[in-house]
Amino acid sequence: MTQADFVVVANRLPVDRTPDGEGWRRSPGGLVTALEPVMRSADGAWVGWAGQADVDVEPFEFDDMHLVPVTLAASDVQLYYEGFSNDTIWPLYHDVISPPTYKRAWWDAYVKVNKRFADAAAAVAAEGGTVWVQDYQLQLVPKLLRELRPDITIGYFHHIPFPAYGLYSQLPWRKQVLEGLLGADVIGFQRVADAGNFARAVRRQLRYETKASGILVPDAEGGTRVALAKAFPISIDAESYVELAQRPDIQQRAREIREGLGNPRKILLGVDRLDYTKGIRHRLKAWGEVLEDGRATVEDATLVQVASPSRERVDAYMQLRDEIEMTVGRINGDYDTTTHTAIRYLHQSYPREEMVALFLAADVMLVTALRDGMNLVAKEYVASRIDNRGVLVLSEFAGAADEMGSALLINPHDIDGLKDAVIRAVDMPAAEQGRRMRTLRRRVREHDVEDWSRGFLEALSAFHGRSSRAADAEVEAGTDDDQADAE
Ligand code: G6P
Questions:
Q1: How far apart are CA 422 and CA 413, in angstroms?
Q2: How many CB atoms lie within 10 A of CB 232?
Q3: Ligand 1, atom 8, residue with closest C-alpha
Q4: pLDDT 10s digits, 241-260
Q5: d(CA 109, ligand 1 centre) in Å
Q6: Most CB atoms within 10 A, among 88, 174, 231, 476?
């Protein structure tokens, strides 16, 4: 059996079935791009689900990666993926924007499927190797893996927010989840605030001591080891966006998009998975009111809203789709003319080339998430703006806001504030656009996804196996600003 020194475990494999159902193709997500260099240099394997129920596939090689499919039966998809992952954890961790459902049968399935992923990772990891677990679908894997394979180094990265203690404590299985995560040597979060929320939950629920970013975890031998819980904000492969934006055919496509919309003076753009965390309703409301107030007409500006299909069998997502589509229909019915539209709504996903053409065509990018781990679309937009033009309107509730202070930061709940920001963005002089965009682009290009994975993996190799005393010195010297709260 193939053994790998470096193993990624994620709910999804980095490939999808080709439309004919025969072959495989790279899935669009950025994680594989991020990890590709490490995967290649370290003889890497990737453990994950192929995205279809009841499909049993043997491990196979793809693009120099060893892929290990984990089979999910239709009931696992329903209970573990749609249920516990996306109807319990997802809404709870996004500040209960949609009410989470707590069902014991879903939890049982989550435990069972997490064991399956941990078993697959344990089987493929080489002696003394490194396993990097990704995201909220697999929070129990670090502990399960440590029990099976104490020889390996375990990292975990949490791509979504970690909620404040008052919300987290609703979870009936709150202790088990914390213990699951603490099986890792390093637990990475998007924001300093997420790492702080996690540390606080650990102190309150498990009564473990924390020191700066270190958490003292009792180990199986009666000693203590230190787990590091810290922010490692994720990024994108910025250079690949720059290269696409430089292509004449893509620039031409951007002009075609503008013409296809009837050459409005400005184009506003929203790009999201169709998810209730993204604040699409708030954005539509603000734009509808701007038109209603007569502060803009459809000749002045069109909003292009790409809402890619997501989790379509989960109730909250079906309801959201109905609401959004009704709102779009109403606004368009009221304001469209035969030549111009208020909102061009696209319930579709597009290849990267088309997305970059859209970014180049868009004068204003609207990111109005109510809560978002990071929001990579904000980074993709600025990376693509090689002309240093365009305005990013960014929710302060997206992780990206921590790094992108030169955007127009907004509170999406404040509809009047959002409307003012939209008008300000539409009217922003070129010089100010350039000043802001240059600062944003510098940050994204310097801190790209390779920088992210390198930073995480360096912390992981530095931290693994530290005795509690050696690690003490390290955490004392830590620079993080999340302090233990007085309780
Ligand atoms: C978010 C999550 C990812 C997830 C992605 C798409 O970005 O952090 O873990 O893969 O959404 O959602 P899906 O349910 O289709 O995998």
A1: 14
A2: 21
A3: 159
A4: 999 999 999 999 999 999 99
A5: 19
A6: 88
Structure tokens at 472: 């003490």
Ligand 1 lined by 12 (C-beta under 6 Å): yes
How much is the pTM? Answer: 0.95
Ligand 1 atom closest to Cα of residue 310? 15
Go through the domains of the chain in sequence order and give each one's CATH number.
4-234+454-478 (3.40.50.2000), 238-447 (3.40.50.2000)
Q: Tokens in use for 342?
A: 């208020």
Q: Ligand 1 atom closest to Cα of 373?
A: 8
Q: Among 37, 88, 86, 90, which Cα is nearest to 64's?
A: 37
Q: What's the half-sphere exposure (Cβ side, CA atoms, 13 Å) at 299?
A: 3
For residue 94 and ligand 1, the question of a CB distance below 6 A is answered with no
pLDDT digits (tens, 9 = 90+) for 87-116: 999 999 999 999 999 999 999 999 999 999
Strand partners, 408: 393
Q: Which residues pair with 303 in a beta bridge?
A: 268, 343
By the 8 A CB rule, do 274 and 317 touch?
yes
Nearest residue to 386 (alpha-carbon basis) of 342, 328, 442, 448: 442
For residue 185, how far is its CA from the centre of ligand 1 (angstroms)?
Answer: 24
Q: Is the CB of 159 under 6 A from ligand 1?
A: yes
The DSSP code sequence of 87-103 is IIIHHHHTTTSS-----
The finding on whether 403 has its CB within 6 A of some atom of ligand 1 is: no
Ligand 1: which residue has its CA nearest to atom 12?
Answer: 310
The minimum-distance atom of ligand 1 relative to the CA of 85 is 14
User: Is pLDDT at 469 greater than 90 in this prediction?
Assistant: no
Report how far residue 403's alpha carbon sits from residue 409's, in angstroms, rounded to the nearest whole number. Answer: 11
Q: Residue 405 Cα, ligand 1 centroid: separation in angstroms? A: 26
Alpha helices by DSSP H, listed for 23-87, are 31-41, 74-76
Q: Which residues lie closer than 8 Å to 299 by C-beta, 6 or more apart? A: 262, 264, 265, 337, 340
